[in-house]
Structures are given as C-alpha cells and as structure tokens.
C-alpha cells in the first residue's frame, strides 16, 4: 500500500497491487506456508505468513519489505496492538538500499512504511510462529493386539479484524498418521493394531497441518508375540521316508516348541467311518527345535508346530502352524522286465527288478520245466530317493551261463504300506550279440 502526505487523512492508506516483475512488496523469507486474511468489513486483505517452530517460546518470524524508491529512505516498522486496536512503533532505519528486514518476530500484524521525501508506501502482513508438541506410547499389549496412543497440542493462530478488532481463527487442518517405516498404518489418533509384529518395532507418530509444520516422535513397541512356521524336506517319496523339519518360527522361546505328527489321513478317515467315538489322530509329539522323523509306512501325513513366548506368570503367547500340504509317502509297487541280454555288451546284461516303498522282497527264477534256478532276497529295505532298481540275476546258473530261452519269475514282497506285493511273468534271455 502507498501513502502520499498531500492526500486527506481518510485516504492515506492505499494498497499497491503490482505485477510479479515489480519489487514493491512485503515477503517472509523462511516461512513454510501462507494464507490471506478474511476481514469482515475491511476492504483489503493482508498476507499471513507461517513459520514452524519447536515450542511456544521460540520466535522465528521474519519479514522483508522491498521498494523501488531510489535514494535514502526511512523504513519504519510498527506492530499491531490488539488492546488498543492501533499500531505501535517497533523498529526504524534509514537506508539507500531497496529492502529492510526484521527478524525474531512474535505473533502479530506488522506494518512497514517506506518514506522518501513526500512519498510513502505502506505494507502489512501477519506473522505466526506455529508449533506442535506431542508424544505417543503403547498400551494394552497382548497376544492379539496392542494400542498406539497419541496426544498433541498446537498453537492457536488468530488474527484481528482491523476494522472491528474481532479475533478470527486460521484453520490449520490438523492431521495425524501412524507409520511403520514408509507405510501408513493408521490415520487415527489412538489406533488398535492387530496381528502384532514378532520383532521390536519403532512406529512414527506424525502430526502435521496444512502449512507443512509437523512433529514425528518415535514410539517403540516391544514384541511379546510369536509366529510359528516351519519347512519339511522332502515332502514326498518312498517309505521309509526320512523327513527333516526345519523350525523357522519367529520370537519363540527356546525349548518351548511342540511338534504334533499326525497319523495317516486314510487311517483316521477309516476309523471315523467305522463309528469310532474317540479317535487319537496324533502319532507322535516331539519337543526338539528342528526334529527329523522317518515315516516307515506309506500314507498321507499332516504336521503341526506350536510355538510359545513366555511373557509373565499369567500370560504366554502361543501360535500354531500347519503345513500347507501333506507329506506323501508313496504306495509300494514292483516292476520287472520281460527280457534281458546277458551278452557282455554292457547294456541290459542283468535281470533288473524295480520296486518302491518295499520293506522286504524275494525273487525266484524258474526254467521252463519249473525248476528254480536262481533266488534273490532282501529284508529290512531302507528308503531311497527314487524308484530303486535292483540287479537280481546275471543270467548264470551255478556260475555258468544259462541257456537262452524263456524263464519264469515270481516276485513277492511286503510293502511299507502293509500290502503284500506280487509280480510274476515270463522273461526272455537272449544271448546273441547284435
């Protein structure tokens, strides 16, 4: 605004509206946001400049007036006094420069008058030192959830209508966020967090307003929960199948794990179908941290792990994990070829029988007159990673090469699934080379 001493007193105050290229203005270096006044009857508006400060005792307001008037000028700063509804002297300086700056300003309206000879320019602006203080803490922590609690206060921003001296509030639009790292987990002041993390976690309680002022205190959650998890390897194979269970539980207490190995699912179903009122589905309970178990019989098996975390004498957090799939111990089988060629060419020189999940097996070879010419057996067969192939006859009888022709084989065995397995048929022995 500009004032000329030759004008009547009622028209001394004029606002100077300039294009961005003109430097005549009042600004606020260091402010984080701005707004405009909404006086009820006063025809003009003034700028509102906001500064973020740590507390109510800090004044960081700063204003700078710029002018195009050339020569030695007087810069006079006044501050509005709401008690008298008038401006009081604040600061004055004479300078050939084009700017004048005042710093460390408290909340209030400041008026800058630039005087050169009979020419005066008048500018006004409001300054607010905007502070937010707050804290957060954790409460109601249990095995299922905990509560994040936030509390804060912030400065009031009120200016006076210069026509009526009435107070008018500046809307700050206060908001809150609870964050875990970069993730916003809630915008409520006191949220309840379910499925608590299994490790100690720092949460950020952010309080901010539309001008960009904010606080971000850290709130630490000390975890009391555990999460059970494990892997099993392998998940399938022939019996006996050795399975290694690896405990990957989080925040579980040492020596507090329980493994429940269930019986074959088909056995449990069969008992249920037969009307059994009470079915004991547990085959074994183990307390090792990462046990190894050998499944001797074929079947379909489930495993459960329970992890515990002791909190106090009245509270222990517990979590349970099941496998997403079953351990499959394959059924037994026997398979034999219908010819072999013991001719020394290093290919198909022996009679090979394949079997899977067998506990014991015996094989007899008969000639065409029904006389047994060869016998092979194995008891207490242990597990193999794949279908096992056993070379059971090299095509010799009593150390001498057997005559080419047709022989009859009988294979009998006991499977790990409890089934008796049999296979029989003719096998051709070819002696000649290709």
Question: What descriptors fit this protein?
Answer:
1 helix; 434 residues; mainly beta; 54% strand; nine-stranded mixed sheet; five-stranded antiparallel sheet; 2% helix; disordered N terminus
Q: Classify the helix fraction into a percent range.
A: under 10%
Q: How does the helix and strand content classify structurally?
A: mainly beta
CA-atom Rg in angstroms: 45 Å
The number of E-state strands comes to 39
**Overall shape:** elongated
Task: Calculate the mean pLDDT score and round it.
Answer: 89
Our estimate of the beta-strand percent is: over 45%
Low-confidence stretches: 1-23
Structural account:
The protein is 2% helix and 54% strand. The protein is mainly β. The strands form 10 sheets. Strands 1, 3, 4, 6, 7, 9, 10, 11 and 16 form a 9-stranded mixed sheet that branches. Strands 14, 15, 17, 18 and 19 form a 5-stranded antiparallel sheet that branches. It has a 5-stranded mixed sheet with strand order 31-39-38-33-34, with no helix packed on it.
């Amino acid at each position: 605004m500009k004032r000329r001493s030759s004008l009547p007193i009622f028209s001394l105050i004029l606002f100077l509206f300039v294009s961005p290229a003109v430097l005549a203005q009042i600004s606020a270096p260091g402010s984080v946001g701005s707004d405009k006044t909404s006086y009820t009857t006063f025809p003009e508006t003034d700028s509102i400049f906001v500064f973020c400060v740590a507390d109510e005792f800090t004044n960081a307001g700063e204003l700078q007036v710029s002018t195009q008037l050339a020569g030695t000028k007087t810069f006079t700063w006044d501050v509005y006094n709401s008690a008298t509804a008038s401006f009081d002297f604040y600061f004055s300086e004479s300078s050939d420069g084009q700017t004048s700056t005042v710093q460390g300003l408290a909340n209030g309206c400041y008026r800058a008058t630039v005087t050169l000879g009979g020419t005066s320019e008048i500018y006004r602006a409001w300054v607010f030192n905007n502070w937010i203080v707050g804290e957060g803490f954790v409460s109601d922590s249990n095995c299922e959830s905990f509560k994040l609690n936030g509390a804060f206060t912030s400065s009031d921003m009120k200016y006076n209508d210069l026509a009526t001296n009435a107070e008018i509030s500046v809307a700050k639009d206060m908001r809150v966020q609870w964050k875990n790292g970069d993730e916003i987990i809630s915008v409520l002041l006191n949220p309840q967090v379910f499925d608590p993390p299994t490790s100690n976690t720092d949460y950020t309680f952010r309080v901010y307003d539309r001008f960009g002022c904010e606080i971000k205190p850290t709130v630490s959650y000390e975890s009391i929960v555990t999460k059970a998890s494990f892997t099993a390897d392998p998940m399938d194979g022939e019996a006996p199948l050795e399975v290694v269970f690896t405990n990957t539980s989080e925040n579980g207490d040492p020596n507090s794990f329980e493994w429940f190995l269930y019986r074959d699912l088909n056995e449990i179903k069969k008992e249920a179908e037969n009307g059994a009122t009470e079915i004991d589905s547990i085959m074994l309970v183990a307390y090792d941290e990462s046990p190894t178990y050998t499944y001797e019989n074929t079947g379909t098996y489930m495993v459960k792990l329970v992890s515990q975390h002791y909190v106090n004498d009245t509270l222990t957090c517990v979590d349970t994990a099941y496998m997403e799939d079953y351990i499959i111990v394959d059924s037994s089988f026997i398979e034999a070829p219908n010819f072999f060629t013991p001719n020394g060419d290093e290919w198909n020189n022996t009679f090979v029988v394949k079997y899977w999940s067998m506990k014991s097996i015996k094989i007899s070879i008969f000639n065409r007159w029904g006389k047994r010419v060869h016998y092979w057996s194995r008891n207490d067969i242990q597990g193999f990673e794949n279908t096992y192939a056993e070379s059971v006859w090299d095509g010799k009888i009593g150390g001498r090469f057997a005559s080419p022709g047709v022989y009859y084989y009988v294979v009998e065995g006991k499977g790990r699934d409890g089934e008796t397995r049999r296979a029989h048929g003719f096998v051709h022995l070819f002696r000649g080379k290709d």
